[in-house]
Amino acid sequence: MVSQFEIAVFEGDGIGPEITRPTLDILNALATDAGDYGFTFVSAAAGAAHYAKTGEALPAASMKIARRSDAILLSAMGLPSVRYADGTEISPQIEIRKALDLYAGVRPVRILPGQRTPLKLEGGQPVDFVLIRESTEGLFHTQGCGEVEQDEARETLRITRHTSEKLFRFAFDLAQKRKASGRGAGRVTCVDKANVFRAFAFFREIFDGEAKAFPDIVADHAYVDATALWMVEKPWIFDVMVTENMFGDILSDLGAGLMGGLGMAPSADIGDENAVFQPCHGSAPDIAGQGIANPFAMLLSGAMMLDWLGTKHNNPAMVRDAKSLERAVDRVVADGVKTTRDLGGTATTQEAAAAVLNALRASR
Predict the structure, then answer these.
(1) Which of 55-64, 86-95, 97-106 is least confident?
(2) Which of 298, 302, 335 is nearest to 321 (CA)?
(3) How distant is the alpha carbon of residue 355 from its chain centre?
(4) Has residue 62 got a pLDDT over 80?
(5) Do residues 269 and 102 make contact, with C-beta atoms less than 8 angstroms apart?
(6) Average confidence (pLDDT) over 293-309
(7) CA dist 351 to 96, 294, 354, Å?
(8) Among 17, 63, 32, 84, CA closest to 285
């Protein structure tokens, strides 16, 4: 029996539609070849361009589609030229995270052989770690409703036991899975600033409490400033890192920089029931419509979606295809012939995506 999954698709702004189309084509091709799962893609309107036309960044109808879907595939969102009255950018992805309680922001960082990186990995050390960013509270708690006076402005950082416990259990579970697969050392690092802020001392205390339920996993701590340094000096020491929302926002971009840019940075925001999968990069309006955007982060986000759905619904074919898609992107990047200009190549979006599809088919 074929398992059918409804996917809410937010094509987004700028280059969003350009990288979404080939991703849906490849996901459909994988499903057709597998024969035991399929997708119904349902388009949902949102974003800065939609706000400019209608005054709504995230319509209720789109939120309804997101809630009922089996997963949400969200492309690049926002345009620097379109802002709310308070000067902040349009970011419906953050609204979705909060509305659906998508507390675990998963940001993989991998440096592949042949991949462009600003690092000098003279020892050939493998870099493969996952940053987990709490995605619903922290310093983003008062997003859009901070207090601004003539001579002073305030935002509130909020950390709750309820969310933090779930976040840390997610991180330890992931470390166990990575260790079992041979991909990780079985280590979770809590990244905070507990030496200065009471809220982070509270965060660390909850982490230590949850660690007791995972005696087979090493639990340690690092201050966020030291972590930023070590991510540049010795990123191979990390396995799973878990941190607050704003710290995670900053460190995930640093991780993308280690990989050669945001074009290689996929992400997932996962809750107990729902999940969003999207590239970490922005909408790049300066190159929109030119057909030269890098589709790899979107494709890798699609692979993360396959893995999450396959694991959740006990569908081995989807888990297998997730790995196949990730490996196909790896091969194209390592080969270097069909990469986009941000990775040193000359391929168009369609050519790069076609190379991934060809790599997939060649591996079967």
Answers:
(1) 86-95
(2) 302
(3) 23
(4) yes
(5) yes
(6) 97
(7) 32, 10, 5
(8) 17
Environment class of residue 88 by beta-carbon count within 10 Å: exposed (0-12), middle (13-18) or buried (19+)? Answer: exposed
Closest C-alpha among 313, 287, 329 to residue 108 = 329
pLDDT of amino acid 139: 92
Task: Give the separation between CA 259 and CA 281, rounded to whole angstroms.
Answer: 13
What's the residue count for the chain?
364
Look-up of token digits 């998963």: 106
Under 8 Å between Cβ of 119 and 293: no
Which residue in the block uniquely carries the two structure tokens 């009471």? 198
359's tokens: 């790599």
Bridge-based pairing of strands 71-74 and 147-148 is unpaired
Helices 16-34, 296-312: crossing angle, 10 deg rounding = 40
Q: Does 59 score more than 80 pLDDT?
A: yes
Which residue carries 């029996």 as its tokens?
1
d(CA 253, CA 330): 20
Question: Residue 164 pLDDT > 90, yes or no?
Answer: yes
Asked if residue 187 lies in contact with residue 240, where contact means CB atoms within 8 angstroms, the answer is yes
Would you state the structure tokens that stand for residue 313, as one six-digit string?
A: 């619904």
**Nearest Cα to Cα of residue 177 among 108, 92, 267:** 108
Q: Of 217, 273, 213, which is closest to residue 240 (Cα–Cα)?
A: 217
114 pLDDT tier (thresholds 50, 70, 90): low
pLDDT of residue 78: 87
For Cα atoms 47, 141, 89, give the angle at the middle one, nearest 5 degrees.
Answer: 30
